[in-house]
């Protein structure tokens, strides 16, 4: 069945989606794409979830109970991911009205359908569609890290959760053998391992679901 992002896009326009630069998607002549806003470091969000929202001595995320299973670890990570994405979207939505007032785009507005008809610039919701990017960086690394955590803590029980976190805090000093094992013995995303590819697939689905749940300020 045709989904069309929950009815946000008309079906005939949906098939006209194309890349406008590197990763941002848009619909020619109908869509204002607000690119280059966010490049989210997904592995860092995973690190935040492991250390109860703290990184480099600063608390910037949420704290969740120590996971007893891999499923709980994954759940903590996706809660943290949702929290960070929502925080970004909330703040950029606060900033957008300022930019719309002082850095508006009249030339682009004249070329995008909807703006002249509404007498409204693209920056203030004049275009038929407005897409905003929450770009995902470190996707493969995050999938590999999840696979390594599952392997070491829950499947093979090489270390406890706390021991692995300590090894990370010490930058693997004194845990070089564990580092070697995780780097060289654990299967990696994209090499035909169904289990790791499934972890990556789940990450992609959850990331997209979270981003799709956020809206622009207009």
Biggest sheet strand order reads 1-2
Q: Uncertain regions: pLDDT < 50 for 5+ in a row?
A: none
The separation of the N and C termini measures 28 Å
Radius of gyration: 21 Å
Quickly give the structural class. Answer: mainly alpha
Instruction: Spell the H/E element sequence.
Output: HHEEEEHEEHHHEEHHHH
- Helix percentage: 40-55%
How many DSSP H or I helices?
10
Biggest beta sheet attributes: 2 strands, antiparallel
Count of extended strands: 8
* Shape assignment: elongated
Report on this model:
With 218 residues, the protein is mainly alpha-helical. It contains ten helices and eight strands. Helix 3 packs parallel to helix 7 (139-155) and helix 4 (70-102) runs parallel beside helix 10 (194-212). The mean pLDDT is 91.
Key words describing this protein structure:
218 residues, two-stranded parallel ribbon, 52% helix, 11% strand, 8 strands, mainly alpha, two-stranded antiparallel ribbon, single chain
Quickly describe the structure:
The protein is built from ten helices and eight strands. By secondary structure, it is mainly alpha-helical. It has a two-stranded antiparallel ribbon. A two-stranded parallel sheet has the order 3-7.
